[in-house]
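Supplementary Text 2. Reproducibility record for the structural model of the 123-residue chain.

All settings were left at their defaults, and a single model was retained for analysis rather than an ensemble. We include the record here because the model underlies the residue-level annotations in Supplementary Table 4.
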Amino acid sequence: QFQFVESGGGLVQPGGSLRLSCTTSGFNLGVYSIGWFRQAPGQERVGVACFSYRDRTTRYATSAKGRFTISRDLAKSTAYLEMNNLKPEDTGVYSCGVTGHYQCERWESYTDWGQGTQVTVSS
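Retained model, structure tokens:
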């Protein structure tokens, strides 16, 4: 059974930083691409960043490029999302999920996510 536990969210002022963690269990993270998603109030879940298991490349949504960094630690079965220079539009529930597709930006291929962690960017 695939399980994901996200943590690290909180309230931060614009321009601030957060580091989110996604601890996984029940499967081998090394053979799945992993992605971070954001769901803002009243909006659909959207892909923010992902890490391909095959070539360890990363992909980012346009809004995240240059500010967010995704990484993973296989020994800890954990993925991270480092978020810098946060903006109010980054507010939402951030969750992680996996796909067996090596092109990790195939957002429609993700079918399971954790409960998520709330990120609120506000002054």
